[in-house]
Amino acid sequence: MDTYGLIGFPLKHSFSAGFFTEKFRKEGIEAEYLNFEIEDILEIRRVILFNQHLKGLNVTIPYKEKVIPFLNNISDEAEKIGAVNVIKVLRKPGDMYFYELTGYNTDYIGFRDSLLPLLKPGIDHKALILGTGGASKAVSQVLTDIDIEWSYVSRSSKNKAIKGRVMSYNDLSQEVMSTYNIIVNASPVGTFPDINSCPDIPYNYLTTGHILYDLVYNPEETLFLKKGKEIGASIKNGQEMLELQALAAWEIWNS
């Protein structure tokens, strides 16, 4: 039986396991999907060696960037983004110790294809990206490619490790909030069970012209989205993005 799985830590809220298990059941696919909760990226070697039927992995927090040195190959889009969320595993028949790992980024596809329907023609869109982890890199690349000006928002605007413009949360004045009409939460803040938390932005400056997009999908409506909804902003969670990126991952694993 073919095996697929997810590496990350912690894995209290895995969308992928439920999605693929249901897909396998509905389509009569003889396969299993397992969660591999690893406390150190070095454990990826153990996961691959001890699961000889493993054909593919999803990668989540905090390993989307840390996994790159363990890959044999990386796709052009993943290299450009600097983060990987899908790994294809190729093995040499008869040699349990030989494997080849190729990294891809399907977060890009999921975010792009779920964001585009929200954009209104004729409006000058600008975006703030809350958080600077692996998922934020796919978000910023999509925005760049569709010609939307963007800025990261970090706890420190002096974070030299981040490429591109960076603001701190203290920089989010009324003028800034009125200029940037798309707010993307690319951080895990607000994820179950921490449902009473939300990114520290000035919600009182939001308007009905804002779009709030939360990569978090559990809960379905985070406090971040609730606050935007109360003001009349357009809101979207990360469910569709996850489904789109998962389907793209399936195509990669089976190509």
Automatic annotation (TrEMBL):
The keyword Oxidoreductase applies. Keywords: Amino-acid biosynthesis, Aromatic amino acid biosynthesis, Oxidoreductase. The keyword Oxidoreductase applies. It comes from the Bacteria. SUPFAM superfamilies: Aminoacid dehydrogenase-like, N-terminal domain (SSF53223), NAD(P)-binding Rossmann-fold domains (SSF51735). InterPro entries: Aminoacid_DH-like_N_sf (IPR046346), NAD(P)-bd_dom_sf (IPR036291), Shikimate_DH-bd_N (IPR013708), Shikimate_DH_fam (IPR022893). Residues 6-87 form the Shikimate dehydrogenase substrate binding N-terminal domain. One of its GO terms (cellular component) is cytosol. It holds the Pfam family Shikimate_dh_N. One of its GO terms (molecular function) is shikimate 3-dehydrogenase (NADP+) activity. Pathway: Metabolic intermediate biosynthesis; chorismate biosynthesis; chorismate from D-erythrose 4-phosphate and phosphoenolpyruvate: step 4/7. GO terms for biological process: aromatic amino acid family biosynthetic process; chorismate biosynthetic process; shikimate metabolic process. This is Shikimate dehydrogenase substrate binding N-terminal domain-containing protein. The lineage of its organism: Bacteria, Pseudomonadati, Bacteroidota, Bacteroidia, Bacteroidales.
